[in-house]
Design brief:
This protein has 315 residues and is mostly helical. 60% of the residues lie in helices and 2% in strands. The chain has 2 domains: 2-35 and 67-118, no CATH class; 124-315, no CATH class.
């Protein structure tokens, strides 16, 4: 399921110009780029009223049940950008093909939603940032996650600066951004305190894998040690990136990052932020996802978040 949806997502960004022109619906831009919603209530005198979102040029309200708004909001919440036209139309059409079949619509909304986490763009940005924090510092003190939303979101935007998957040279731009990000990361004071410049390649790499809580294969360890080179900023960053992109670390953290992304993306908060006060909800969904071997459909995780009152009342 994951591989299929990830592959389909990639296709959306390499679709032809004809696909982008197949719909006359304009790309909606009714939320700010950082994903902040309009106030849920406004005061007019002593009366509370909800702001009305209207489809441009009409008196028709826009809701999260509309496929175009639903799709756009996923670009904003998970990729920190407004949609490119071809991807926007592709994912709208995926939902709209259901017509008025409510059961079909629900299935396609879940799959479209999950596709954003599984996409190349998310995996090589937000998930890469997540794994960078995991390898560098392990989990946060007393918490089952390595990073807070307020740290991951700005770092992700740095990695994704100027990147739209499918556009000319997107992969080169992304690769350059990742290299620059990792080089900046190894120069942070908290990282330097944990990984002093005096460390050898083997010490540096072994500590990264140990901090991440995984046992690498011999090939993964050798690749990271070789990437270290002379141990300057570029070498230390290359070794860190090698560890971060290792299959062992990726497999170990995939489900944990998937659950965390639900809170960061849909609810715009950390799992222990109000209305929660702990990680019980996070642990519940991680348990469900692990129980079904990462099958988000069987675990009903994505479905639960996009149908949750907390998500829907954002809008």
């Amino acid at each position: 399921m994951r591989k299929f949806i990830a592959a389909v997502f990639a296709v959306a960004f390499t679709a032809s110009a004809a696909l982008a022109q197949s719909s006359q619906a304009p790309t909606l831009r009714i939320v700010s780029e950082d994903g902040n919603r309009l106030p849920s209530e406004l005061m007019y005198g002593n009366t509370k009223v909800k702001p009305l979102r209207l489809r441009p040029g009409t008196n028709v309200p826009i809701t999260i049940d509309d496929s175009d708004f639903f799709v756009q909001q996923h670009y904003v919440d998970f990729l920190s950008r407004f949609p490119d036209q071809s991807g926007f139309v592709f994912w709208q059409n995926d939902i709209n093909q259901c017509g008025s079949n409510a059961q079909c619509i629900e299935v396609h909304r879940v799959n479209v939603s999950a596709a954003f986490f599984l996409s190349i763009e998310y995996q090589r940005s937000s998930y890469l940032v997540y794994k960078t924090y995991k390898a560098a510092f392990g989990n946060l003190p007393g918490k089952p996650v390595p990073v807070r939303r307020e740290n991951l979101v700005p770092d992700t935007r740095t990695v994704l600066n100027g990147v739209i998957v499918g556009e000319t040279n997107w992969d080169k731009t992304l690769d350059n951004n990742i290299n620059a990000y990792e080089q900046s990361f190894v120069q942070r004071s908290d990282f330097a305190a944990q990984f002093p410049a005096s460390m050898t390649a083997a010490q540096f790499v072994d500590k990264l894998f140990s901090t991440a809580g995984v046992q690498p294969s011999a090939d993964e360890r050798n690749a990271a040690v070789n990437a270290f080179g002379a141990g300057n900023t570029a070498g230390r960053a290359a070794a860190l990136r090698s560890v971060v992109e290792s299959q062992t670390l990726d497999a170990a953290e995939k489900n944990r990052a998937f659950v965390l992304a639900q809170y960061f993306g849909y609810l715009k908060r950390n799992p222990d932020d109000l209305p929660d006060t702990n990680f019980d909800g996070y642990s519940f969904w991680l348990g469900k996802l692990n129980e079904f071997n990462g099958n988000f459909v069987a675990a009903e995780m994505v479905k639960a978040f996009i149908n949750s009152t907390e998500y829907r009342t954002r809008f």
